[in-house]
UniProtKB/TrEMBL annotation:
Leucine-rich repeat domain location: 68-434
Segments crossing the lipid bilayer: none
Source species of the chain: Byssochlamys spectabilis (strain No. 5 / NBRC 109023) (Paecilomyces variotii)
Identification of the protein by name: Leucine-rich repeat domain-containing protein
Domain of life: Eukaryota
SUPFAM superfamilies: F-box domain, RNI-like
Pfam families: LRR_15
């Protein structure tokens, strides 16, 4: 059907500008489906971000994934239009070791997909394995075919696990410039990556009964994203960050080689204080790390060594547990060091135990007396200070430190405007009122929160870190 006369008479620029003001995605899709003329004109805009958080379709449905991949492979102009890609594989696709069998009702262009696999695979065996997974309806195998052709990708959000083989393989090859990315790397424009590791706790049968535990397979080292030339933001959740040993020198990141300015790693585990990532970045401005809290413990000493590398550039620091987990080991409460020399640091979120160096415990006194004065630990540029896990006698000791800090605000922290503490004890009313009065006089917004109070819905708990939202899918109908 040809375009209506009035539509065809309008300059394309006017139509595109009008469509950009259709903030409801369904309205945009309905508008583009009015006629072939509008569909061809507006399809690049639709595919600019083929998945939005407001869409009703998820990537876990193989028919939608197959339709989208084939559309992208057939239409290079749409491939060039994709700038924001969100990949979330369905849990059923990630769980369990099941033999690949033909998908009963999956129809696709075997020539188109076969040619794509042939151009992408590096060996005959890999090609055969890939084609088997394609025929079995493995979304991982299908979606991996996208990366060689998405030449303008700017942001990537994806969930992966030990069962995600093809996508992680493609990403690693793209980062290292291996086939099929020898002549051009579509990830060279990528400036934001969010990766979520889906934890395979156990393997289930069809009746949801545990039948075993997943094998430990090679997973993607997300620190490799720091090798990308345009990457500004790296976010991750539920990751175990590797410690590179002497036998992995070829994979280590070169110091000051990455343009990353924002690191946000939540509910994760790092033994070296994410030292490899921090050393690789030229200028880290925003650093957020929340520990998963496993029995190996939070490596406070490692962070005390790595954080000073950011003191010339860091503006915001959040370092805490990702939930209400208590430390397993005394070393987790070790001092993270002074932040006085962090000349640009404006926002600090930290556990009380890690903020101070505490005097050793004795037979009659617990480890409740800080060695330092809080005024000597904070940077002059600090604007927001949040202290969590203020418990027992250590928490009581903090109150007098805060009174001292606010009383001497103009001398030490003249820019301080917001102060929050998370406590598990009752502050004497007179002391609380005095502290609030001091803050009011110095124009500091002061708040006392219950540490880990699930009923406090007005304010977020300390676990308000990055939560990966469900991603959704749109395909070429």
């Amino acid at each position: 059907m040809g375009p209506p006369t009035l539509i065809s008479a309008l300059p394309p620029e006017i139509i595109i500008h009008t469509s950009q003001n259709l903030h409801n995605r369904d309205d945009l899709l309905n508008f583009s489906y009015t006629c072939r003329y509008l569909y061809d004109l507006l399809s690049p805009q639709v595919y600019h971000e083929p998945v939005t958080t407001l869409d009703d379709f998820s990537l876990g449905e193989i028919h939608r994934a197959a339709s989208f991949v084939q559309t992208i492979l057939r239409r290079p102009n749409l491939a060039r239009s994709v700038q924001h890609l969100r990949i979330k594989l369905d849990r059923s696709d990630l769980r369990g070791d099941v033999a690949c069998t033909l998908h009963p009702d999956l129809e696709y262009d075997h020539t188109l997909i076969g040619d794509a696999v042939k151009a992408t695979a590096v060996s005959i065996q890999e090609r055969k394995d890939w084609e088997i997974d394609i025929a079995a309806g493995n979304c991982d195998a299908w979606l991996a075919l996208l990366f060689p052709v998405l030449s303008n990708l700017k942001t990537l959000v994806f969930i992966f696990s030990s069962k995600t083989r093809f996508i992680t393989r493609m990403l690693e090859r793209a980062i290292y410039g291996q086939r099929p990315f020898v002549t051009q790397n579509p990830l060279s424009s990528l400036n934001e990556v969010t990766a979520l590791w889906y934890i395979d706790i156990s393997v289930y049968d069809d009746n949801n009964n545990i039948i075993g535990y997943p094998s430990s397979e090679k997973t993607l080292d997300v620190t490799l994203f720091a090798k990308l030339p345009a990457l500004q933001t790296l976010r991750g959740r539920q990751l175990t960050l590797p410690v590179h040993g002497p036998d992995q020198i070829s994979h280590q990141l070169q110091p000051d080689s990455s343009p990353i300015t924002t690191l946000s790693i939540s509910s994760s585990i790092s033994e070296d204080g994410i030292l490899g990532l921090i050393k690789a970045c030229k200028t880290v401005k925003y650093l957020r790390y929340t520990e998963y809290g496993d029995r190996n413990g939070f490596h406070a000493d490692s962070f005390r060594r790595s954080l000073p590398l950011t003191k010339e550039s860091l503006e915001e620091l959040w370092i805490d547990y990702g939930d209400h987990t208590y430390p397993y080991l005394d070393a987790e409460n070790n001092w993270l060091g002074s932040f006085h020399d962090f000349s640009r640091l404006r926002k600090l979120h930290i556990r009380l135990a890690n903020l101070f160096s505490w005097r050793p415990s004795t037979a009659s006194h617990a480890r409740t007396t800080p060695k330092q004065r809080l005024t000597s630990l904070l940077p002059p540029a600090i604007e927001t200070l949040c202290i969590t896990e203020c418990m027992g006698e250590q928490g009581q000791a903090l109150v007098s430190q805060l009174e001292d800090l606010i009383s001497n605000k103009q001398t030490y922290v003249s820019r301080l405007s917001q102060l929050e503490i998370y406590i598990d004890f009752m502050i004497e009313p007179d002391t609380r009122d005095h502290l609030k009065s001091l803050c009011e006089e110095e124009q500091v917004d002061f708040a006392i929160r219950r540490w880990w109070d699930p009923t406090d819905m007005k304010y977020p708990s300390r676990d308000d870190g990055y939560i990966l939202q469900d991603t959704f899918w749109c395909f070429d109908r």
